[in-house]
Predict the structure.
Amino acid sequence: MSAARSLGPSAIHTRSAILDLIRSSGTVSRIELAEMSGLTATSITRFVKSLIEDRLVIETGFGDPTGGKRRSLLELNPTSRYAVGVSLDDARLNYVVVDLGGNVVGQLTSSGIGQSVPSAEIDRIADELEQLFRQLDIPRTDIVGVGVAGAGLDLGAGAERLSLTADEWESFAVRKALEARVGLPVVRDNDAACAALGQYWVGRIPATQDFATLYMSNGFGMGLMIGGSVNRGASSNVGEIGHMVVDINGPDCWCGSRGCLEILAAPRAIVSQAMQDSALAEELELSGDDGHLRHDFNAIASRAAEGEERCTALIEHSAHIVAAAVLSAVNLLDLDRIFLAGPGFADAGAIYARIIRERVSGFARARGVHGVTIELSDPGLDAAAVGAATLALQYVLTPHAYV
Amino acid sequence: MSAARSLGPSAIHTRSAILDLIRSSGTVSRIELAEMSGLTATSITRFVKSLIEDRLVIETGFGDPTGGKRRSLLELNPTSRYAVGVSLDDARLNYVVVDLGGNVVGQLTSSGIGQSVPSAEIDRIADELEQLFRQLDIPRTDIVGVGVAGAGLDLGAGAERLSLTADEWESFAVRKALEARVGLPVVRDNDAACAALGQYWVGRIPATQDFATLYMSNGFGMGLMIGGSVNRGASSNVGEIGHMVVDINGPDCWCGSRGCLEILAAPRAIVSQAMQDSALAEELELSGDDGHLRHDFNAIASRAAEGEERCTALIEHSAHIVAAAVLSAVNLLDLDRIFLAGPGFADAGAIYARIIRERVSGFARARGVHGVTIELSDPGLDAAAVGAATLALQYVLTPHAYV
């Protein structure tokens, strides 16, 4: 039972802010916390007491004596709490267990959702979570929740429209279904938003550094970290960069609009362009079916990464269109740091990064004022799954961060 | 001399936050402030004392007695401070004087900057400010500063690249030059950002309502209010929606990129399309010169508003392209409220609003979750000038809000 339960909503908010200050400071004294927060020493003492009672914060020795009373230092207790993150994807499920310090302490990978329906998959995910928990030497009571990352829309009131192959995933409430099966709080968010949050947490990016994470799976999403929080917009549906209009006279998109980034440059578009070259399609054993989309795209992307000419041309074509959308986002939001994450960038991420860099450095409106770094997120890291776990930690421990 | 001067940076931040809470609450007690802020009653009492000493806040009677000690209520003292806002524009200069409550208490309009150079214009602006101050029955010491709104880029270190006709405005430091002439703090920001801030302040929009203001003058800008603050990005150059790529195969833009919103749909594009119809050009007495751009565009826009067919077609063509860019911004940021402001929308704003509404309501990704309101800002109000004045008030009184 958390000591926070006895506090009112604004006090919980303040307690969360103090916990966040301790996290971002590494080690910090109560007096420094009072200076940073503008709160009185009395308030700080009270909130810190509640955080220590909950084992979230520990005292770790003393600061330099400056003549007066010796000051004990505070820091997060990383091994006091854990959360699980799952990234839902057609081609692969990634599970990670993250501690309060953002360290990955457990991992599991299994086959993707493919054409499977929700009822079977929720059972499987619950079983795989169980299997993961058994592998870990962690008290079950210290696992605070499960975060789920996936492409799709938040429809409000718990329902989501997931971008997975089987129709049954449209307007399915993953959160509710999984919560009933695993008996832990479950939170769910867009994979791009999760990837941005994961980058922020694991990459120890300061709250003053706003940035965007462009996430590419079957489509595109953009997570925005503004002032140390994931920007959520009106309905937690921020980041639909895949439906930015990049060619006003372009082809109809399945979303109803036309000339969207996604219809022009996402894996499905690249694979259908490749299918038109029958020699190439045969050579790479492309199926052209939606069920094998990721396999087909990966085949093209990995050959492009090796320098195969036809595949390179296809990926570069996609990258030029992605670069135009990224340039538009950079101009609209005056971004100076962008991460590329997600399975779509796993094989040919370097080609995308190079072409986006060229376009943004050449044409960003504020290029005379500052550069824009375009970085691939660590490919070994599933940023979305780590971010989903972080989201669960935040949801349970610092309720203000998850609206 | 402000009582805030004796406080450290984090205390000034807290004082600013308390001032903002009082402003958004209308009237509020110290106990309510303590509840809302999470600060102790002692801290609140101390900060409120400093705000009252500065005349920024006044006590206004008492709340309902609930058995205990009667509680005095606090509110902003609207007539304690004033600021001036100036909106710089090729075609017209607007000056407004705004009090701390956001009320416009003085106004002056003069001819635009046209092809004139900075040295002459700064002198004229200083003279016109002097003239405006003389008209007002306000102690000079209560005018805290001047805000300047204009299109262009913030180049950092005080320099700006203003989008005005004469080349001399490129990399000219308006802020520094005007400050030296008027002896008051001068702040300068993008007209779109100012227009958003003005809407927020005068329209008493709550901090929880994020929104965007699309500003159209010779080009386009988008001001973003997120969490009650103007979003500033990496270098205060947020909002360059005019250089969003809407036609990846489109014509070269002067910015170096191609197919930008601005090159396709801004007044210059509309006027050159109109010039190709010589009968229309003659009828409307269009000159086609850059120096008469606003006049030419206004002639087309006002005839379109009257229903003239050829002019309506030209404005609708522009509006469809603007609508695609707005849809892209709505999808990227999950916006649910957009204001249209600026001289470009003065005559044919209703046509733009209708076409943007149609496209956004038909195709926004989150349309199943929430609607998006598209509103014309009050045409009588110069949102950019009012916002610039607000910016000056914030800069001087609540330093946290202006980074």
